[in-house]
Each structure stands twice: as C-alpha cells, then as structure tokens.
Write a structure and sequence with these properties.
This protein is mainly β and about 100 residues long. The protein contains no helices and 5 strands. It is elongated, with a radius of gyration of 20 Å. Belongs to the outer membrane porin (Opr) (TC 1.B.25) family.
Length: about 100
C-alpha cells in the first residue's frame, strides 16, 4: 500500500497487485486428462481511507476491486479441477471500526 500523506492526503492509501500462475494439474483420478494444465491470472486495486480524528478515529473504509482470468476453456469446477472457476470480477467495500469492550 502506498500512503498518500506526503501528497497532503492524510488517511488515504492506494495499492495494486498482480499474480500469474501456471501448471495447475487436474485431480489424479485417471478419468481426467493428466496432460491438461491451467494458467490463471488476477489483479486487484485498493483505495482506503482511515478517519484521522474524532469519535470514529481509526475507522477504515476500503474499496477493493479484483479481476480474475482463468486462461482455459474448461467449465467451472470440471475437468478434474474441482476448485477452479472461470473469469470473475469482484467489488468489495469494507468498513472496519476499532472498539473496546472493557
């Protein structure tokens, strides 16, 4: 994450990441083509704001976007790959508030 306080934006931060994976193998069950391999990639971007003062000090607001790409034509959860799915886009908005019980 990159803190934007040096840009006169205290409490704001941004970040991004990327991953590429290859050679995922199917289940070892012989009914599946053991020569099949999967390639996949994903990237995400985040923007966050943390309240700096007042009663809500420390509360974090986070917007998170993910784009996942399965570079195969195998249908979701099939072909011996029981935990893969096809392309996906996600948008999440989180609010995290600190509190004290005692």
């Amino acid at each position: 994450m990159y803190d934007l306080k040096n840009w006169d934006l205290p409490g704001w931060a941004i970040g991004t990441s990327y991953v590429y994976a290859w050679d995922a193998k199917p289940s070892s069950n012989p009914i599946y083509d053991q020569s099949k391999r999967i390639r996949e990639s994903a990237w995400n971007a985040d923007i966050m704001y943390t309240v700096q003062e007042g009663r809500a000090k420390g509360t974090l607001f986070k917007l998170h976007y993910t784009r996942y790409d399965n570079h195969s034509d195998i249908p979701s959860y099939e072909g011996g790959f029981g935990n893969i799915f096809q392309d996906e886009k996600d948008v999440k908005f989180n609010v995290i508030m600190p509190f004290t019980i005692f």
